[in-house]
Design brief:
The complex is a heterodimer. By secondary structure, chain A is an all-beta fold. Chain A contains no helices and eleven strands. In chain A, strands 2, 4, 5, 6, 9, 10 and 11 form a seven-stranded mixed beta sheet that branches. In chain A, strand 9 and strand 10 form a beta hairpin. The mean pLDDT of chain A is about 95. Chain B is globular. Chain B has one domain: Immunoglobulin-like, CATH 2.60.40. Classes of the chains: A mainly beta, B mainly beta. Chains A and B meet through strand 4, strand 5, strand 9 and strand 10 of A and strand 4, strand 8 and strand 9 of B.
């Protein structure tokens, strides 16, 4: 069964450093998403991406965040200058359609900012 | 389906049928009702989706009454491995981002 993969599984970084979280969506999917989940809290939407541009973003996704699809397979989330409150589990998801389509989630990257 | 209400937690025993009900009073005409499952430290996983009446797959059944203001996820004969958080949720935005609530934490005991 095809699956979404994410690397690294765990990233530790110091406050103010830049991090790049990587995702490989399912190959024939066209819609890509990033979500995050702070420990003990609900999953929150960050951004959706389609046709090489951001479709929608939440209030969380401020100027410190950016996404990119540098080639035909990878989808990255960059946090320019990390803050303590960015510590969370970050999930990438992909789907073949929009509303009503099943989204496939990756295993997540646990980001710890110290 | 923007705002959903479901129990915070439920306990069950192995072999029992578990029913988790979700209220979604403001459901729009074209909204689907979707349920996801999340194990600790893993990404959410799609379980089932429906629009009206009843939908069944190899994992669960979903019952939706005629007014569509609620839905019930039914898990037949649960096992310890069904211990997880179950989310009833809808889609938002123009590209269908998922809107998660706090979900229902199901604990299955031996």
């Amino acid at each position: 069964e095809p699956e979404v993969t994410q690397t690294p599984s765990h990233q530790v970084t110091q406050m103010g450093q830049e991090v790049i979280l990587r995702c490989v969506p399912i190959s024939n999917h066209l819609y890509f998403y990033w979500y995050r989940q702070i420990l003990g809290q609900k999953v929150e939407f960050l951004v959706s991406f389609y046709n090489n541009e951001i479709s929608e973003k939440s209030e969380i996704f401020d100027d410190q965040f950016s996404v990119e699809r540098p080639d035909g397979s990878n989808f990255t989330l960059k946090i320019r200058s990390t803050k303590l409150e960015d510590s969370a589990m970050y999930f990438c998801a992909s789907s073949s359609g929009t509303s009503g389509s099943e989204q496939y989630f990756g295993p997540g990257t646990r980001l710890t900012v110290t | 389906l923007a705002k959903t209400t479901q129990p915070i937690s439920m306990d069950s025993y192995e072999g029992q049928e578990v029913n988790i009900t979700c209220s979604h009073n403001n459901i729009a005409t074209n909204d689907y009702i979707t349920w996801y499952q999340q194990f600790p430290s893993q990404g959410p996983r799609f379980i089932i989706q429906g629009y009206k009446t009843k939908v069944t797959n190899e994992v669960a059944s979903l019952f939706i009454p005629a007014d569509r203001k609620s839905s019930t996820l039914s898990l037949p004969r649960v096992s310890l491995s069904d211990t997880a958080v179950y989310y009833c949720l809808g889609y938002g935005g123009s590209q269908g981002n998922l809107i998660f609530g706090k979900g229902t934490k199901l604990s299955v005991k031996p």
